[in-house]
Amino acid sequence: MKLLASALLSALAVAGSACADLRATGDLGVVIEREAGTIQIVNTTKPAMLSRIEGLGDLSHASVVFSRDQRYAYVFGRDGGLSKIDLLQDKIDKRIVQAGNSIGGAISQDGKVIAVSNYTPGGVKLFDAETLEQLAEIPAVYGDDNKLSKVVGLVDAPGQRFVCSLFEANEIWLIDAKNPRQPGVKKFKEVGKQPYDALLSPDGRYYAAGLFGEKGLALLDLWQPEQGVQQILDDYGKDDEQLPVYKMPHLEGWTMVGDWLFVPAVGRHEVLVVDKHDWTLVKRIPLAGQPVFVSARPDGRQVWVNFAFPDNQTVQVIDVKDLNTVKTLQPGKAVLHMEFSPRGEAVWLAVRDDDRIAVYDTETFAETSRLPAQKPSGIFFTDRANRIGW
């Protein structure tokens, strides 16, 4: 009898411990620690660090997507590493090195396929999201001499599709991954010089690629791809003085709010506001520096902007109602990335050179929390799992 009672107490203690360790996946996020090759798993409500995962290779340009159940984070490293992280067990579930130089990735609409865009060798590879088995390779071949192009701006799109841009080829590719072992590719050529990054509108309809080699954007309507790619804003800034570009803007940080697209101007101290009905320029909003990320609060009322060196200690906030800058903050040295809480009451800032994360209240603009981090860059929350193109 005593043995039975003892066993029961032990079982209850184990069960109690397990319950104490339970965590909700919707409350989690990942912070990239770029120089150490590590990530932090964080609680986004407290906020607090839960664990640190090591051995993830070169994370100097790392990005993350999440499984649809929000349990797993897929980390794309600059060294071609693809790492599947179990956010509940604080460990690497699987890891492969699939290329020599990778720039990012996406997860399919059904959550079963991971796509990776590569610089070296140029192309896109598709993987099984559960096992990381390679399903297909799509070399980014272009021209009569079959050169390989760097692939950028890879996003997921409705209909089990992916869209990407080919930098040297001046092309946009629409990849049909319904059969991921035999994907179909529709190629749009001569879209503009050097598409360098892209965004997908929140409804999954429009794919807009920035052009580094000329003015304007390349726009593809995924509802009507047969109409081809059109160039928009090609007259913007054509008579302006050309300024040096200190850091390329990230178009995944562009944003659409209501009827407007907010675009970081390449090499200029301004954000462009574009009417998405006719793709005309509405306003040029002057800013403190060259914008990198231009990110909307989930309710669309505010747009937060960070900047390239030498102004990367600054963050500015645009009020969408009036299309004016309403707040300038100085969070610390080298603010590299911003991520809003799912409903937007808070924003997390990666302050690289101060080795910390700063959390701000988006209504009062007060700093509410600080978390230590080793040279943090990207911040990614699991609510991204339920968004198109993220």
Overview of this protein structure:
Mean pLDDT is 91; it is low at 1-20 and 243-247. It is built from 1 helix and 34 strands. It is mostly beta strands and 390 residues long. The longest helix is centred in the N-terminal third of the chain and has 19 residues, at 2-20. Among the domains are: 98-245, Methylamine Dehydrogenase, Chain H, CATH 2.130.10; 248-330, Thrombin, subunit H. Strand 14 and strand 15 form a beta hairpin. The protein starts with a helix and ends in a 9-residue tail after the last strand. The strands form 9 sheets. Strands 3-2-1-34 form a 4-stranded antiparallel sheet, with no helix packed on it. Strands 4-5-6-7 form a 4-stranded antiparallel sheet, with no helix packed on it.
The CATH fourth-level homologous superfamily of the domain at 98-245: YVTN repeat-like/Quinoprotein amine dehydrogenase
- Quickly count the helices: 1
Name the overall outline. Answer: globular
User: Which range does the strand content fall in?
Assistant: over 45%
Number of strands: 34
Strand order of the largest sheet: 3-2-1-34
Q: Summary?
A:
This is Protein nirF. This protein has 390 residues and is mainly β. The protein has one helix and 34 strands.
Topology:
Layout: H1 2-20, E1 28-33, E2 38-43, E3 48-53, E4 63-66, E5 72-76, E6 81-86, E7 91-97, E8 101-107, E9 113-120, E10 123-128, E11 134-139, E12 141-142, E13 147-148, E14 151-157, E15 161-166, E16 171-176, E17 184-188, E18 195-200, E19 206-211, E20 217-221, E21 229-232, E22 255-257, E23 260-264, E24 270-275, E25 280-286, E26 291-296, E27 302-307, E28 315-319, E29 324-329, E30 335-340, E31 346-351, E32 356-361, E33 367-372, E34 376-381
Antiparallel strand pairs: 1-2, 1-34, 2-3, 4-5, 5-6, 6-7, 8-9, 9-10, 10-11, 12-13, 14-15, 15-16, 16-17, 18-19, 19-20, 20-21, 22-23, 23-24, 24-25, 26-27, 27-28, 28-29, 30-31, 31-32, 32-33
